[in-house]
From TrEMBL:
One of its GO terms (biological process) is signal transduction. One of its GO terms (cellular component) is cytoplasm. GO terms for molecular function: ATP binding; protein tyrosine kinase activity. It comes from Leucocoprinus birnbaumii. This is Protein kinase domain-containing protein. Pfam families: Pkinase (PF00069). Residues 50-313 form the Protein kinase domain.
């Protein structure tokens, strides 16, 4: 079996095993709301049950969070810690953060952009939710691997070229090329003082010829919350605009994006990143290095680029 054939086979087995875990798990069945903490998950079910599950690797609670076993039948509101299940009081679903920007100011910024004759066959439009998004997009115009803002339509939405979703049955060489393009794009953002905050498979696109990766979603306002230092800030009650996003948190999410891009899927819980949801060699080492708990232990993007370039194809 060739190196690429072995890579594809292992990647497909990882993907199939992940899908099987998702199919058998009852963790998120009949879900009303949930909250991912730094080392716990809170779930509010539609039947009124509130459940808190602490991550203790190698135990019942840790296996539930990694979708390896199901939530057992519960008689009431419960906390699962290790192999123990204890009764707890009900907790109300946290109110959503309503720290929204002034829509009038955002709309005014968008209306200063040139009007594009919108063609749905070649264009994509989205509502702007943040002034930073327009500023960021204008700063990075011209980078081949960052989505290009064309202007606005008559309705006041941002307009971009339409690209493909990043689905491909790629080789090691394909993913190496795309990840090198992504690291260059993120390095360019950082050179402009922009932290992406939400690097993920869902924010990647492909050019129509599938040769070039395009990074999108440059709001730099809303971001993922399961990077360790971000999750801890959330648990401590810091408002989202005070969460410590940094180039090092982007590195953490770059690692997550490696897994999601290579496996061509996303997990149900962040604990799967330390369970079954790990990309196959030769990308696993870079992945694990990016996901270090201590930000100071994570590599720089330049070091990630060197590791990717060293992959033999």
């Amino acid at each position: 079996m060739s190196h690429d054939a072995e890579f594809r086979s292992l990647r497909n087995r990882i993907r199939e095993a992940d899908m099987a875990l998702k199919d058998q798990s009852n963790l998120l069945d009949d879900l009303l709301s949930m909250y991912f903490g730094s080392d716990f998950l809170e779930i509010w079910y539609a039947n009124g049950l509130y459940v808190k599950i602490r991550d203790v690797p190698g135990s019942l609670s840790g296996d539930i969070l990694r979708l390896r076993v199901n939530v057992p039948p519960l008689n009431g509101h419960s906390e699962i810690i290790g192999d123990d299940i204890v009764d707890i009081a009900y907790k109300d679903i946290p109110a959503e953060d309503d720290d929204e920007e002034d829509t009038t100011v955002v709309a005014g910024t968008v209306m200063q952009l040139p009007v594009v004759a919108f063609d749905p066959k070649i264009h994509f439009a989205k509502t702007c939710r943040s002034i930073k998004e327009v500023s960021n997009l204008l700063q990075v115009q011209g980078h081949p691997n960052i989505v290009r803002l064309l202007g606005r339509n008559e309705a006041g939405d941002l307009v971009f070229l339409r690209h493909r979703r990043p689905f491909l049955d790629g080789s090691i060489s394909d993913f190496r090329r795309l990840l090198l393009q992504l690291v260059d794009a993120v390095m360019f953002l950082h050179s402009k003082g922009i932290v992406h905050r939400d690097l993920a498979f869902r924010n990647l696109l492909l050019s129509q010829d599938r040769q070039n990766l395009i990074l999108c979603d440059l709001e730099s306002r809303y971001g993922s919350g399961h990077c360790p230092e971000i999750a801890l800030a959330r648990d401590n009650g810091a408002p989202d605009q005070e969460w410590p996003y940094s180039p090092k948190s982007d590195v953490y999410y770059f690692g997550i994006t490696i897994a999601e891009l290579v496996i061509q899927n996303a997990p149900r819980t962040p604990w799967q990143y330390f369970g079954n949801f790990v990309p196959p060699p030769p990308f696993d080492h870079i992945y694990h290095t990016c996901l270090k708990t201590n930000p100071d232990d994570r590599p720089t993007l330049a070091e990630i680029k060197e590791m990717l370039e060293s992959i033999i194809v």
